[in-house]
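Q: Convert this sequence to structure tokens.
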Amino acid sequence: MDAEIKSRFTNAGLEVVARYTGDDGPSAEEAFRRVVHVDTTPVQRLQKRGPDAAHRVDDAWKARAREGGVVADDGSFLAAASMSYGWVQVRLTPRTNISALADQGGELLFIARSLSGHRVCAASTEGSEYWILELDFPEQE
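A:
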């Protein structure tokens, strides 16, 4: 496990389980290409300004990911570490805050996939908004 990647997820309050080496389901690169696409419509838009914006995007992403079956009953799912590194299996904890994964410029791009590979739920920054994005991969069901 790459120490920098592990630290980034741990600092966001995620429990890092292991690097995912399976080849079932969409790759991190494929998920990125399909969910962060010019024609993608967000399922939820949140204003990026305001003191509670980070909290709101975190809550919105967790709710959509749970409702959509991205997060397993034990809180685990796959998170994209990078396009080249691929997926890391992580688990939600009471300290999880995905907005802590934003870069130094405040841009957020967090892509998560169900363990089965059937669904992706992402949070990204688009201009003055946070977008919550979802995409099904029915070929994985």
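Strands lie at 15-19, 44-47, 76-82, 86-91, 109-113, 119-126, 129-136.
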